[in-house]
Design goal:
- 30% of the residues lie in helices and 23% in strands.
- With 191 residues, it is α+β, with helices and mostly antiparallel strands.
- It has a single domain, classed as Gcn5-related N-acetyltransferase (GNAT) (Aminopeptidase), CATH 3.40.630.30.
- The chain has a 7-stranded mixed beta sheet.
- The termini are far apart.
- The C terminus is likely disordered.
């Protein structure tokens, strides 16, 4: 029997609660402690907003979840980027590697669909170097403590490894050209 990873949108509040409970044992860091009420309310608001909020299943069991959103974080220009807010995975080994790559591939596809030219991700975990090396192998570039994926990257192939049918990708969104800057009002969310 072969089991595959699947990625989909978060279904309901019970699933959100499951994701939070799954993540608590992984977050015992005293430098970045969490407030459970604050965490739940923020994640609920992110889920209800236009963020990318996905769960990844292996053998019909949620093993990972992640959230990304479109932001304009720079004070010196209006460029937007897709930034990973949180990514959590309870598995280890090859399924964890595949889940990490799957979420970040979908994050890149979402950037393409929204005409955003850059994705940013990072990790605060003790094993962050493993996280970075896995993504560097598929074209992410390390810049200080973050990883950046530029959509003019020649290694980018839309959903190169996984093509979930729920994405509804079109040929038009796969061949977008990205100008140096995307101005507000040019079709970008929030613009």
């Amino acid at each position: 029997m072969t089991y595959e990873l699947t990625i989909r949108d978060l279904k309901d509040y019970d699933e959100l609660e499951h994701c939070i409970q799954m993540s608590i044992p992984m977050n015992t860091d005293t430098i970045f402690p969490y407030d459970l009420f604050y965490l739940k309310s923020n994640l609920f608001m992110l889920w209800k907003s236009k963020c990318l909020f996905k769960v990844i299943e292996y053998n019909n069991r949620i093993i990972a979840w992640g959230v990304a959103k479109i932001v304009a974080p720079q004070i010196y220009n209006k460029d937007k980027q897709v930034t990973q807010i949180i990514y959590q995975c309870s598995n280890k080994g090859i399924s964890a590697v595949k889940a990490l790559r799957l979420f970040h591939t979908i994050m890149i596809d979402w950037a393409v669909d929204n005409r955003i030219g850059r994705c940013v991700t990072s990790s605060t975990r003790d094993d962050a170097d493993v996280f970075y090396r896995i993504l560097e192998k598929v074209g992410w570039i390390r810049k200080g403590g973050i990883l950046i994926y530029l959509l003019d990257n020649p290694n980018y192939e839309p959903s190169a490894i996984f093509t979930p049918p729920v994405l509804g990708r079109t040929a038009q969104s796969q061949s977008l050209q990205f100008p140096g800057r995307l101005a507000p009002g040019d079709g970008c969310p929030g613009g």
